[in-house]
Design a protein that fits this description.
alpha+beta; globular
Length: 595
Amino acid sequence: MKKLDHKQLKKLFFEFFKSKKHAIIKDFSIVPEEEGGEGLFILAGMHPLIPYLMGKKHKDGNRIANCQRCIRTVDIEEVGDKTHNIFFEMLGNWSLGDYFKKESIEWSYEFLTSKKYLDIPHEKLWVTVFKGNKIVGKDEESVQIWKSLGISENKIIPLGEKDNWWAVGENGPCGPDTEVFIDLTGKPCGKKCLPGHCECGRFVEIWNNVFMVYDKQGGKITELSKKNVDTGLGLERTLAILNGYDSLYETSVLKPILEEIMSKSQQDLEKEKKDFRILTDHLRASVFILGDVNPTIPSNHGRGYVLRRIIRRSFRFCKKLEINVEDWINTSNIVIDIYKEYYPELEKNRNFIIKEMEKENERFSKALAKGLFYLKRMMPEIKKKGKINGETAFRLYDTFGFPIEITREIAEENKWGIDIKKYDILLEKHKEKSRAVSEKAKSGLVEESKETLQYHTLTHLLQAALIKILGKQVKQKGSNINKERLRFDFSHDRSMTKEEIKKVEEWIQDKIDKKLDVTKEKMTYEVAMKLGAIGLFNDIYAKKVTVYSVGNASKEICRGPHVSNTKEIKGKFKIKKEESSSAGVRRIKAILIQD
């Protein structure tokens, strides 16, 4: 097997698929444009491509490949072992209604075994295929293709839906897949030592080829008019296999970070190995979330909460390992240096990344002090019952910004219990309330009247003005509009100056005075983006979005309604208040002053 670093592996992968007439496309932002829902981050290489797998035409053709950044926190408790990371990269190639099983399997085999590419010995390969169910039969076609490549039948293992059936969700494209495994030892641990059956560590999955043959709607499966291929090859895992490493943390993308963090501690490096790996993993994930083209900053909601949880969890491990938090934060420079060639936005956002982590450290120190003071007040009740009740745990989260994991760790250190059931009930109620608010905030309108339509159009002009004057990092975080005023929340890390506020007011008033037409147009999301439209797009399955344009001043994806011309906006635009809404989010309240 070829011993490669991450740059060499990417180069070989791209060269190979270029030779197979694939366009190498840029990876998508790790932070999708849409807010809310379950899609907080890109979880797998195929997620940004779902619209194209559903039939939308891709500008680069029907054969594409890339290396996609992903964030997955479902296994956060497993991070620190040999194989789990929050952040990872997926190499993948796709056929959008072009080639199918034969080419996909043959090319996977060629890339893995060819001396020009990975040079993995043929005899080390095992594969799994879909064994069929009551609706869809066994994937005999894949079996025959693997056999034609010299894989013996005893190394082709049929498995059920849990292992070899892929679906985007309850409804949508789905189909069988075939997975390729590497036999690391060649020594069975027992009779059922087979891929998909045994977890002794002998077999490691290296590649997955998904064949999207069907569309599932309401429990009914029909064949798709166009059959697609979606494949995935984990970069870190492949590097570990090729180089014979015992863990992902020995690879070229993680080892330099790990070694730098370990050098800052006086603790037993071997004894606390898992904790050092956690700090390594969490730092890399934090850098990518903060440094993305659509940056997320720590908060108590959604993506911001995921980031806060990762960072604050790291601060706790720094304390345990006697590492100065500033040293851990400054190791971000090593992460950026490793990846800046492929992700130049990390270099561009280097100062922002470190600054935001430093701010979160300050916030956490204050929150920790306040939270611990609150816990001290509750101590008689906690000691009496031997546990932290759900209301206290929720208040620590909602008021003091304690991720529940930190409260749980404090409870474990003091040998207290914790009423997680009650906490979960209160959290769910909180989420339901937030979802209701979020639905209203999609338009921001409390009701539709002549006055609220004026203010709704003004929110579009306000966002355009803020982006122009404060910078492209400004993102809408919410709005609320009634007859008397508009309220607009946006991402920004400091208060606005008087000069900036004045510039925003003057820019907006100029657009009102110019009597600009407000037009509405339906178009594809891709076209909207090309035209420079901004705004939140929540439904990735929708074929068309509505774009409202205010002359050439503003272009936004929006559900409406609006005035038809800015001459309908009566009065002078005035910002009455600019204040903090939450960490990293500012709030503007503005009115129209009547002449």
